[in-house]
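TICKET #2291
ISSUE: user wants both folds in one file
ATTACHMENT 1:
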Amino acid sequence: MTTLLSLLLALATVLPAHAAPGAHGPNGEHLDGPAATTDVGTVPRIETFSELFELVGHLSGGELSVLIDRYDTNEPVLGGTLEVEYGKLKARATFHADVGDYAIDDAQLLQALSKPGKHALLFTFTAGGDSDLLEGTLDVPAIAAHEHGHDQRWWWLAALPIVGIPAAMVLRARRPAKREARA
């Protein structure tokens, strides 16, 4: 029996470790696929600039949220008018004074932009006497739509055979042999 346990231990140290399909690490990351470096890049994002303005936006929370600064000073441009075009779709943004962003919440536009891929957008921005067109690409990665629906309460069931079989073998080896009753 000791030989069998020694053999199992030797195999465990020699064989490479592999994660089972759907296995998760301590931070919820998938262990069966390529390692992810960070979560940055999973939120669809757009950045563009012109001689006058710099635009940064992200698609999340049911809206396309856009911040606009003066290109030369990085000073936020508040209270302007922003429109966005995507193909034949066009929507006007609502300015949120409390946050300082321009929010586009047109359902038809958001549905089109939520699909994975690269989406060419044209922004028309007017503030005071300044007006500009800004072109950019919203990159929507496929991973942005990935959701975890795994039930992690039953992970221990997978460990039962790994622990149970060797334990049963050890217990069986240590059990004293039955003595036959003589009549």
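ATTACHMENT 2:
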Amino acid sequence: MLAAIWAQDQNGLIGKNEVLPWYLPDDLKFFKEMTLGKTLVMGRKTFEGMGGRPLPGRRTIILTRNENYQAPVGVLAMNDIKQVIAYAKASDHTVFIAGGGAIYATLLPACDYIFRTVIEDSFEGDTYFPEVKWESWRLVKKVAGKVDEKNKFPHSFEEYERIHLD
């Protein structure tokens, strides 16, 4: 199964210079809980923006057009979305699309689920989530995140499933 996971501000902003433009520990905890033991698919720039090393306890796939890209040890490199989709279909666990914008735009049509954190604030950045055809999705769950001294921005966690019209 293929799912997209991301955090965005109220305007759809998801990044600034290949990193998150905010610090929200509650969302980082949610991301870890959702993806631990699973596979993450991301573009090369997103991977390098996270320090160029895989996150602990997760398999990482870098989707890149560079056929000569040398992935770090323990990281898979794929050059074709068909490879990613086939991997996800053959996998016994959820494969999460984790950025950046171009990777989301390319793979969202193949996703069955969306896990989106919406931050009720505006930030400065350069990358927005691509347009989503929300009529193809059904909201399954929405949970308010905690706001405290560490989590200064109101936010909510949303889960959507694709509507399959037969």
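RESOLUTION: both attachments delivered.
EXTRA DETAIL ON ATTACHMENT 2: The first helix runs from residue 25 to 35.
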